[in-house]
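[09:14] KT: can someone run the structure on this one? pasting the chain below
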Amino acid sequence: MEPTSTEILVLGAGPGGYTAAFYAADKGKKVTLVEQNPRLGGVCMNVGCIPSKALLHATTVMRESKESSKRGIEFGALNLNLDKLRAWKESIVEKLGQGIKTLAQHRNVEVVHGRGHFEDSQTLRVETDAGQKFIRYEKAIIAVGSKPAMPNAFDLGNKRIMTSTEALELPDIPQDLLVVGGGYIGMELGTVYAALGSRVVVLEALPSILTGVDPDLVRPVSRVAQKAFKEIRLNTKVLKMATAGKQIKVRNFTTASS
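[09:31] RB: done, C-alpha cells below
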C-alpha cells in the first residue's frame, strides 16, 4: 500500500493529542490523528476523569437524597438500577467522544483508527481493521497517554482484582471492597462504591491519603471518607494477594506512624 503524507502526525487522541492536532490544524497544517481506540478522547475521557466524575455525581445525588430528611425533605426508598447507571455513564462518554470527532472533521483533521508503530524516523505503520496503513510525516507528536499497571504480586488472573478501568465498568457491587492506594483515583472509586453499598477499606502505604494535595483539600475528603468507608489504614503496604474461594486474601504490613 502506498503511504499517505501529512505534515503533522499526532499519535494518541486524548486531551494532549487532540488539542495539539486541533491547534496545528488551526495554524494551517495538514494533520493526521491516529488513535487505537474506536472513540476519541483518550484515557481521561473513556476510562478516567469523565466516567469517574459522572459516577461521583450520581452517587452524590444518592447520598444527598438520603441526608435530605435533616432539611425536612423525605424521599421513598432508593432503588438502584445498575444497568441504567452504566448506560447513563456510557452515554455521557459517547456524546463527548462524538463532539471531539465533530471538531476534528470541522478542522479537516484526518482521523485514523489503529495501533501505530514507528517504522523509521518519518514513517508510521498503523494496524487498522482494514489492514496496514503507512503514513509519512514531517513532524510527529507522541501523546499516547497511560494505562493501569498491575504489580506482579497482585496479578492472579482473577476478575475480582480490578484496575480503575474495570472498576469504572461497575461489573457488580461487591459486599466488601479493598482499595489499594489512597490517591485521588482510589478515593474517587472508593467513594462511588461506598455510596452504592460496598463496605470499603482503603490501604495506603504513605502516612496520608492524597499525598501531594493541599492539606486544606485533604481534610474535607478525609472527613467524608472516614464516615463513608469501613476503614482507612495508613502506612500500610500490600505484600501479597491470593485467591481464597470467592474472596481475595491480602497480606499487608503496617509500619509505625511517625
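[09:33] KT: thanks! The chain has a mean pLDDT of 94.
[09:34] RB: yep, looked fine to me
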